Amino acid sequence: MVVVMRPGAAPEQVDAVVARVEAAGGSAFVSRGVQRTIVGLVGDIEAFHALNLRAMPGVGEVVRVSKPYKLVSRENHPEATTVEVAGVPIGPDTFTLIAGPCAVETPDQTLQAALMAKSAGATLMRGGAFKPRTSPYAFQGLGEKGLRILAEVRQETGLPVVTEVVDAADVALVAEWADMLQVGSRNMQNFALLQAVGSAGKPVMLKRGLSSTYEEWLMAAEYIAQRGNLDIVLCERGIRTYEKGTRFTLDIAAVPMAHSLSHLPVVVDPSHSGGKRDLVIPLSRAAIAAGADAIIVDVHPDPTAALCDGPQALYGDDLAALAKTCRDLPPMVGKKLVEQ
Ligand code: PEP
Ligand code: MN
Fold it and tell me: To test ligand 1's pocket by mutation, which of 98, 102, 150, 251 has the most ligand atoms within 8 angstroms of CB?
């Protein structure tokens, strides 16, 4: 951390900054320039924040040099992390296909969607039992009944389950049934939920908030990590921009950016970002080319009857193209599809 004094700051003002830092157990190194004096601080940065140095007389700015997220940052942990979900890896050397219905609607629909996912080469299935819906009148998911259906379908297909939890009070219940807990875009800064999934003992997929910066996203991951859970994958799912032609704007740069800022794996959701079936394969290709460690894709046996997000769900006929994309492209970026 560096304290930049205002031009012409008095020597006593510089001394006061040094004294406050030293009193808090830190070290301060003063560098006097012609125009300005800067003070470099060494020690516990979080403790320095509490010193309120920015408010001291003569101080111009306080600049943080290291990242505010520590546990999830690449600077403190240069090696890329592989997260295992019931034995299925998501990490730097592999590419993982996660697919399934947006929402669990019926046992048959969920099973059919999971079989579609499997035929496309998926090794993990998705499916929401608790749905975060913009409208309170829209289908909210089957709740616990949906979790039981997911468990039955896992039994039948062998595919481990990724499913969303929307409320801290439900984390223990969802963790009982799920192999990976999903925190959705709208809940990315629900700090109580982040802490609860951080203590739940299951891997977590953290979707990027639809208007969140990289730093806010990684600080949200830090909340989970701070509770002792480093089995986190980051999911880029599109951000809100002025463009209305797509549901959200897939921020493809988020993949290499998140990889450079963090050691955690990065997943892309081409379904919720584009919001249109025809975009899913092109966006999946872009995601793989950008280095995504996995994609998470909506499929449905009858998208016209889907209770949630039908327009973005792939039909059975689309699966061959999805499977080919997932097989052919990852080797071009040094990755190998995780096989069933
Ligand atoms: C989902 O994956 O079902 C979902 C609701 O996604 P998001 O939180 O990204 O909107
Ligand atoms: Mn959805």
Answer: 102
